[in-house]
Design a protein that fits this description.
13% strand; 29 helices; 19 strands; Rossmann fold; single chain; binds 1,6-di-O-phosphono-beta-D-fructofuranose; 3 domains; alpha/beta; 44% helix
């Protein structure tokens, strides 16, 4: 062998080939950064103006009108292109502006392109304009931590995922002090406008800031971001103004790609049920999209479960001329039965494997859990207010928290008027596993949201499923179906008569493809008893090996692998849809600012349609707000949109459930969405949910 020249590591790292192979830059990255998203038609004009659109009406909440008087009457504004505006218009449009932008809440793919769109439009209108990125979210505005964006910085982040350019945070600007510090920052940077790229809570923040800054003439514009897909805006007459927040498509596609790979693995190795928890806080939009993208065997949709009614209970109560309130809404126990039913049916068709998709917020839709969440929110909020202390600092351990709850339960016995936590609540709460108690008692975020992503929802549900499957196994109803031809082959190999043993062993030895061992046979002992009783073997004879083999094959071994899809999809580089959507949102933001708008959210109408029909608009935020329980109190927030069980997308999933469960002999019906491709042909260029919902009622 020729002797190898030894070189030092320092020298090795200087080698151009090694440098290229280990560098951060790759062709995909270069291609992404260089991509220029197409612009909506109006933006091809030299100027854009705004037109108030009075066709869209909202049911305004009285509290919103009281708290947000200066922006409550805002109308929807449509961005229109202008070729030859008047001189005075031009002067305002080209004015040098200072604009601050911040990300708020969880990252969502496409955020950098919102900034890019705003940056490009603002610089085009006046190259002297300055765009500041506030660092780490709202904290950057409060503490005046900002960086001025430059061409170089911007170009490094075009079409890239994450919010890493300026980072994000979840601080709520909810005190007078934070408000006045924010105002001070605006003064110091001489800001004309602030842009808040965020979810429902952050746009709520944007509305309050817009109100607060109204007199000072500082404009505040929101941008609908969240992978949860729960910012979808319609007016009071169901006219869709914003069909989907940005980031949803990419995250759901990324989840779908990984889950589809699991579908393939599970149907190859045929031994695991993969349990996939999918992010989305409360609403099940991402889970619904994943179902459409992958055709996983079972997908739970929280909103559908909440709508569940137990017909048996209703009928029984009717006979007694009574109403059974427990018949409405699903319980955890019942949910586990629904899942078990699917597992059992697939097992009977010989499929001891599959994929289950569970939305992370599904527990919010389960009666008993929702009650606990609300009660605990109230208890924690009241404790903090009464003692001017922090519940979680005062009771750091689970045992301390449980002891406090026990004290409340004892107190409720002494004082009948205290009803928030009684001994029954305490007993029920003590019945649930410790890890889940801990989850339910976890600290809420600054907006009062329950931290669903940190609760092991899948573990809670699958714990019950496993317990129930064990009961069914003992009852003899949970069995793996044995393929008839295989059964015949095994018995004939040992010289046994398959037809003779078939009637003894199976409960369905007719003309079916998959045979099910009788329910009474649940062990080698009961197998022998049955064979002896039916005269197939004598008391002192051994069970034939082939029969033993068949029996063993029929015993299910329920093995699971759990997965959580959330942060990974949230950090994915945006799909082309999200790149184009967000760049145009950025351009819309500038149009709103240049035309004096405030208290509005930039949006694209007709997103569910072909790109040529996209219409940039400004949606007034204040009329979208309503009162909601947060941290035990009613607060004014932007209304979240959950999955509409009457939508075409949901109805399609419901209609295809049975097919995707595939509890029949033969292949599964999985769909392979494939990885997110930036270039090349991609079958669907927008979320399937949008495509279906755009079809409307059929
Ligand atoms: P936003 O609503 O701020 O976009 O956040 C969405 C989300 O990713 C949820 O899906 C998830 O429940 C939550 O953030 C996770 O929060 P955290 O990033 O604090 O762990």
């Amino acid at each position: 062998m020729p002797e190898k020249k030894s070189i030092s590591i320092a020298e090795l790292l200087k080698n151009p080939q090694v440098k290229k192979a280990t560098g951060n830059i790759n062709p995909e990255l270069i291609e992404r950064r260089e991509y220029i998203p197409p612009m909506c038609d109006v933006f091809s004009k030299p100027y854009t103006a705004l037109q108030d659109n009075t066709d869209f009406k909202f049911n305004v909440d009285r509290e919103a009108a009281k708290q947000l008087p200066d922006i409550i009457d805002n109308k929807v504004q449509t961005v229109i292109g202008v070729d030859f505006p008047e001189k005075s218009f031009k002067k305002i449009y080209h004015k040098k502006r200072n604009i601050g932008i911040l990300f708020s809440g969880g990252p969502a793919p496409g955020g950098h392109n919102v900034i890019a769109g705003l940056y490009d439009a603002a610089k085009k209108a006046n190259p002297e304009s300055r765009i500041y990125g506030f660092l780490l979210g709202p904290d950057g505005l409060i503490e005046n931590e900002a960086t001025e964006l430059t061409d170089g910085l911007m170009d490094a982040y075009r079409n890239m995922g994450g919010f890493s350019m300026i980072k994000t945070g979840r601080t709520k600007i909810d005190t007078k002090e934070k408000m006045s510090l924010s105002k001070e920052t605006c003064k110091k940077l001489e800001l004309d406008a602030i842009v808040i790229v965020g979810g429902d809570d952050s746009n709520t923040n944007a509305a309050f800031l817009a109100q607060e800054m109204f007199e000072a003439g500082i404009q505040v514009i929101g941008v609908p971001k969240t992978i949860d897909g729960d910012i979808q805006v319609s007016d009071a007459n169901d006219n869709v103004l914003c069909a989907m927040s940005f980031g949803f498509h990419t995250a759901a596609r990324a989840f779908a790609n990984s889950i589809s790979n699991l579908c393939i693995d599970s149907s190859s190795d045929v031994k695991y049920w993969h349990i996939c928890k999918v992010m989305g806080r409360v609403a099940s939009h991402p889970a619904l999209e994943v179902a459409l993208q992958t055709h996983a065997n079972i997908t739970l949709i929280g909103e559908d479960l909440a709508d569940y009614t137990d017909r048996n209970r209703i009928e029984k109560a009717k006979i007694k001329k009574a109403i059974d309130y427990n018949a409405y809404g699903i319980t955890l126990r019942h949910l586990s039965r629904v899942i078990c039913n699917g597992i059992l049916r697939r097992a009977a068709a010989g499929k001891n494997y599959g994929v289950i998709v569970i939305p992370e917020g599904v527990l919010e839709f389960i009666n008993e859990i929702q009650v606990f969440i609300i009660k605990l929110n109230t208890i924690i909020a009241e404790y903090n207010e009464m003692h001017d202390m922090d519940f979680h600092s005062d009771f750091p351990l689970l045992d301390n928290k449980l002891e406090y709850l026990r004290r409340l339960a004892r107190f409720s016995r002494e004082d009948g008027s205290f009803s928030i936590w009684n001994t029954r609540d305490d007993d029920l709460f003590n019945d649930i596993p410790g890890f889940f108690q801990e989850g339910l008692l976890m600290e809420r975020d600054s907006h009062g949201n329950f931290p669903f992503s940190q609760v092991e929802t899948d573990k809670v549900i699958m714990g019950l499923v496993t317990d129930y499957l064990n009961i069914l196994k003992e009852k003899g109803t949970y069995k793996i179906g044995i393929e008839r031809s295989y059964y015949r082959k095994v018995l004939e190999k040992e010289g046994m008569n398959p037809d003779y043993f078939g009637h003894v062993l199976f409960k369905n030895y007719g003309d079916v493809k998959f045979l099910l061992i009788k329910e009474s046979i649940i062990s080698m002992k009961t197998l022998k008893q049955t064979l002896v009783k039916k005269g197939a073997i004598g008391q002192d004879e051994k069970i034939p090996d082939s029969v033993k083999k068949i029996y063993r094959k029929s015993v299910p071994n329920f093995k699971t692998q759990t997965h959580f899809y959330g942060y990974d999809g949230r950090g994915n580089d945006p799909t082309r849809f999200d790149c184009i959507y967000t760049y145009n949102l950025g351009l819309t933001v500038f149009s709103l600012i240049a035309n004096g708008s405030t208290g509005r959210m930039a949006a694209i109408k007709n997103l569910e349609m072909d790109f040529s029909k996209w219409e940039p608009i400004g949606i007034p935020i204040a009329p979208l707000m309503h009162l909601e329980e947060r941290k035990g109190k009613l607060s004014l927030v932007l209304e979240k949109s959950v999955v509409d069980i009457n939508s075409t997308a949901f109805k399609a999933v419901k209609g295809l459930r049975e097919k995707w469960l595939a509890a029949t002999p033969g292949e599964d019906n999985f769909r392979r969405p494939g990885p997110i491709r930036f270039t090349g042909k991609s079958e669907e260029d927008r979320p399937i949910t949008l495509v279906l919902n755009a079809i409307g009622d059929i």
